[in-house]
Design brief:
Layout (H helix, E strand, L loop, with lengths): L3 H14 L32 H13 L22 H8 L4 H11 L6 H11 L9 H7 L1 H24 L9 H26 L4 E4 L7 H4 L4 H17 L7 H11 L23 H7 L3 H24 L11 E2 L5 E2 L1 E8 L2 E6 L5 E3 L3 E6 L5 E3 L4 E3 L7 E6 L5 E3 L7 E3 L2 E6 L6 E3 L2 E3 L2 E3 L2 E6 L5 E3 L2 E3 L2 E3 L1 E7 L5 E4 L1 E3 L2 E2 L3 E7 L5 E4 L14 E4 L2 E3 L15 E6 L6 E3 L2 E3 L2 E3 L3 E6 L5 E3 L2 E3 L2 E3 L3 E6 L5 E4 L7 E3 L3 E6 L5 E4 L5 E2 L3 E6 L5 E3 L14 E6 L5 E2 L9 E3 L4 E5 L24 E9 L17 H16 L5 H8 L8 E4 L8 H7 L7 E3 L7 E6 L2
Parallel strand pairs: 5-7, 6-8, 7-10, 8-11, 9-12, 10-13, 11-14, 12-16, 13-17, 14-18, 15-19, 16-20, 17-21, 18-22, 19-23, 20-24, 21-25, 22-26, 24-28, 25-29, 26-30, 27-31, 28-32, 29-33, 30-34, 31-35, 32-36, 33-37, 34-38, 36-39, 37-40, 38-41, 39-42, 40-43, 41-44, 43-45, 44-46, 45-48
Antiparallel strand pairs: 1-4, 2-4, 3-6, 4-5, 47-48, 49-50, 49-52, 51-52
Helix pairs in contact: 5-13, 7-8, 8-10, 10-13, 11-12
Length: 851
């Protein structure tokens, strides 16, 4: 293992033991860099609403700050290599981070199409987006273009012949037609040869087993080679279009170097060359990382979808043809019925039947399996763009409860190439591997897609959505799933990587840890570095050799009750110019971590955890986490709904020029922590905010109360909103309080808001209005009326839809002459207080007591 697990992680531990910091303390942070705070102007969304933002502004006002003050310079370690712009932008504008996470959750959801995902990945990773344009496809697919032009000329010749002769009976005897037809055939054969040679090698053979005319229903009378070439030509040509200029020998050296960032020292990628021990892999990797694998994957995804659709047309009929089961295999390493085999120097392509199959070996370039409970042993869906290797590899399994039993560089792995595993049919599948697998992109694209079922994923490291100079994405569309690994798993991105794990629903278990001790700091806790985690390469001895990290997202969709278990580093956290995100859309979830996570940014980095609903538990005994940040970093934890429990230190805590924010939007919550200094409070020029916007909340810290604002030193605040309709900017004197005794007589003014269905309604500022629109308007005007500085008389004049703008005397003797809903509220208010009535026969009344 090169950079991350040995020198870098050892340095992390040593820094803590020695009390070291990246920089010394100073009296005040540097000013924001030019443009910071403007590039990410606040844009309301689901994760952070306009109302939330107003609360944050109020909290900042309470500690004498403005939004721009959060944008102070945090990128204090200069001359770092390979820092992704999105990671720098998060540091420059912390208030833009929730929107970045929200956009990422949309971009990489289970339903997002693969071309859009690949293009967005290229954008994040700063690859050449022009490669995704249709015009670029024409340039890359030269052979296809030549064939298309020859076909156009032939069609034009036949059109003119038809206009001249009236039919095409004799056209085949014409010398001109024969010449054009020969040109079409030659260009088509060259097209087939280009594609199949790139995938299989210089010489290949098609061996249908046994030859059967029935099989032509699947791939046509032109043969299996043309069938495959038609499907696979465009993604293969995207890979062959070399944009980097890196020689094959240099690529082989990069393969040896780069695999070390995830793997144990004795693990070697197939085809890798020799490399000097402990040499830096990142400069050569950056030169070799092209856009081709991402473009090829964008084109292969719809092709696999089309293949699956076409094949399922035969499988899905009431009485599928018997020949779909195939004939007993005579192919080495393959058991069960198969339909065909294509062999070449680089490996083989197998089409399996609808029954149970076993595929055992490391030379499978592609497997298309029509069904059954299958077993895959060895290296599958492994695209390795090195000499003698297939740069594009896939498995398309259409149905069954399948088992994938592999070791390294398998089950959706790409190096300078594309590896995609699609398991369809909703079966209960099991995936086992070791390193760099289950959707791992190293200088390439790795994807594993499972469309449902209760699945199990077991691995060691660099898997389940992992990447370094590439894109790795594991997508499980649904079911109750289990993900287990040691470290660098479940959405882990290293330098120049984008790593995503998307689970579409169900009650899921995520576990990372239990193998690699976090020595020398801890002899009883393990490294996880997983579950929406990204890390760069910090090099204090030679800062110019440091690097940024990547972008990681663990997205759990649906309303499942999920368990996230990690030890050290994980769950929406990052280290050194990186971005780590965890988003859970619903369910009663349990988050357990020992240290560094749960929305934690560590050392010039950003981490965010967002949970949209459910009664959730968060445990992080040692921080930094729970919306915490340390050392020029940014940390967010946002929980939008539910009765939640927060346990541990660092809740909404910034340390050493950092911004830490914990935002709980609703529910009756409990905050348990070691002491007052570990919640909503930080040290050394921090910005530390804990905001709890609603509900009856409990704090173990003495002096911190529900419904109170508690200043925690310089820029630290526990902001627990008072109940009863409090909002930022409110004139608190307008809030109703219990009147004891209740007033017997009051003088009030009101604003009536009606709607179109009310007889004799006199609407203002609208030609028509529904009942729902009227209620929303009334609530909006109530908030406006209670806001500091609002002129009540002008508001009443502008909006009231009563027949007269006047004050009403209401007392016990005459209350019967008033609408009940109006009178009930009027006789409950103190002077200056404003309230909204229930809906009455004329609409809603916003009532203010004036005497």
């Amino acid at each position: 293992m090169w950079a991350m697990s040995k020198p870098v992680l050892g340095l992390i531990a040593a820094a803590w033991l020695l009390g070291a910091a990246v920089v010394t303390a100073q009296e005040a942070p540097k000013e924001a860099p030019a443009g910071a705070g403007r590039e990410f102007e606040f844009k309301a969304g689901q994760f952070l609403t306009q109302e939330d933002y107003e609360h944050i502004l109020e909290a900042l006002r309470c500690v004498e700050l403005k939004p721009g003050d959060l944008s102070f310079e945090k990128k204090v370690a200069l001359n770092q290599r390979f820092v992704l712009p999105i990671c720098a932008q998060c540091l420059d504008n912390p208030l833009g981070v929730p929107r970045i996470a929200e956009d990422a959750a949309g971009d990489f959801s289970a339903a997002s199409p693969s071309p859009a995902r690949a293009r967005r990945a290229a954008e994040i990773l700063q690859r050449d987006l022009r490669r995704f344009d249709p015009e670029e496809l024409r340039k890359e697919a030269v052979g296809w273009t030549v064939w298309a032009e020859a076909s156009r000329k032939l069609s034009e010749f036949e059109r003119r012949w038809l206009l001249d002769k009236g039919n095409l009976k004799e056209v085949k005897n014409d010398a001109g037609w024969k010449s054009l037809k020969a040109e079409v055939n030659a260009s088509w054969q060259e097209t087939i040869s280009d594609a199949m040679t790139l995938m299989l090698g210089a010489k290949f053979e098609v061996a249908a087993q046994p030859a059967s005319e029935d099989y032509s229903a699947l791939w046509g009378t032109s043969g299996l080679d043309q069938f495959l070439a038609q499907w696979l030509y465009t993604p293969l040509m995207s890979l062959s279009f070399d944009e980097t200029g890196v020689a094959p020998a240099a690529l082989a050296a990069v393969a040896a170097q780069l695999s070390g960032v995830f793997c144990d020292d004795d693990i070697r990628m197939p085809g890798a060359g020799a490399t000097a021990a402990q040499s830096d892999p990142f400069d050569p990797a950056s030169r070799a990382f092209g856009t081709g694998p991402l473009v090829a994957a964008a084109r292969l995804g719809p092709i696999l979808e089309g293949m699956a659709h076409s094949l399922n047309l035969y499988r899905g009929v009431k009485n599928p043809p018997a020949w779909l089961a195939g004939q007993p295999s005579r192919e080495q390493g393959v058991s069960g019925g198969i339909l065909a085999v294509v062999r070449g120097p680089q490996g083989r392509i197998v089409i399996g039947g609808t029954g149970d199959n076993t595929y055992e070996g490391d030379d499978f370039i592609a497997i298309i399996d029509l069904g059954g409970n299958d077993v895959y042993r060895g290296r599958v869906a492994s695209g390795i763009g090195l000499p003698g290797r297939a740069p594009l590899s896939f498995v398309l399994d259409l149905a069954g409860n399948d088992r994938y039993e592999g070791e390294d560089f398998t089950q959706g792995f790409g190096f300078n190439g594309v590896g995609i595993l699609w398991d369809l049919g909703g079966g209960n599948d099991c995936y086992r591997s070791r390193f760099c697998s289950q959707a791992c992109g190293l200088l390439g694209y790795g994807e594993l897609f499972d469309d449902g079922g209760d699945d199990q994923y077991f691995t060691d490291s660099g898997s389940q959505g992992a990447a370094c100079f590439g894109y790795g994405h594991l997508i499980d569309a649904g079911g109750h799933d289990t993900y287990r690994g040691a470290r660098y798993v479940q959405a882990c991105a290293l330098v120049g990587g984008l790593a995503v794990l998307t689970d579409g629903g169900g009650n899921d278990l995520y576990y990372a840890g239990g193998k690699y001790l976090h020595k020398p700091l801890h002899n009883d806790h393990y490294q996880s570095l997983s579950q929406g985690f990204s890390i760069g390469n910090r090099n204090d001895a030679n800062p110019s050799m440091g690097t940024g990290g990547g972008v990681a997202l663990l997205l759990d969709q649906g309303d499942g009750n999920d368990n996230y278990i990690a030890d050290i580093y994980g769950q929406g956290s990052s280290y050194w110019y990186s971005l780590g995100m965890l988003v859970d859309e619903g369910g009663n979830d349990n988050h357990v971590l020992y240290q560094y996570g749960l929305g934690g940014g560590i050392h010039l980095s950003t981490g965010i955890l967002v949970n949209l609903k459910g009664n959730d538990t968060y445990t992080d005994p040692w921080g930094v986490g729970l919306g915490g940040a340390h050392d020029y970093a940014v940390g967010w934890l946002i929980d939008r709904a539910g009765n939640d429990l927060y346990q541990g230190g660092g809740q909404g805590q910034g340390l050493n020029f950092s911004v830490g924010i914990l935002l709980d939007c609703s529910g009756n919550d409990s905050h348990a922590c070691p002491g007052a200094g570990s919640i909503g409070a930080g040290h050394n020029n921090d910005i530390s905010l804990l905001l709890d916007l609603d509900g009856e909340d409990f704090y173990t810290v003495p002096g911190v109360k529900n419904g109170r604002f508690t200043r925690q030193g310089g820029h630290g605040l526990i902001y627990d909103c008072p109940s009863g309709g409090w909002f930022p900017g409110i004139d608190a004197s307008t809030l109703p309080t219990k009147q004891d005794p209740a007033p017997g007589q009051v003088k009030v003014e009101h604003i009536l808001i009606s709607y179109s269905a009310v007889k004799y309604a006199k609407l203002r500022n609208a030609e028509s209005r529904t009942e729902a629109e009227a209620e929303a308007l009334a609530r909006s005007l109530l908030k406006q009326a209670r806001t500091r500085g609002t002129e009540w008389a002008k508001l009443m004049e502008q909006w009231s839809e009563d027949t007269a703008l006047c004050a009403y005397e209401v007392h016990g003797r005459n209350r019967a002459i008033y609408v009940k809903e109006f009178a009930d509220v009027a006789l409950s208010l103190g002077v200056g207080q404003i309230a909204l009535s229930a809906k009455g026969p004329y609409g809603w009344h916003i009532i203010k007591r004036v005497e």
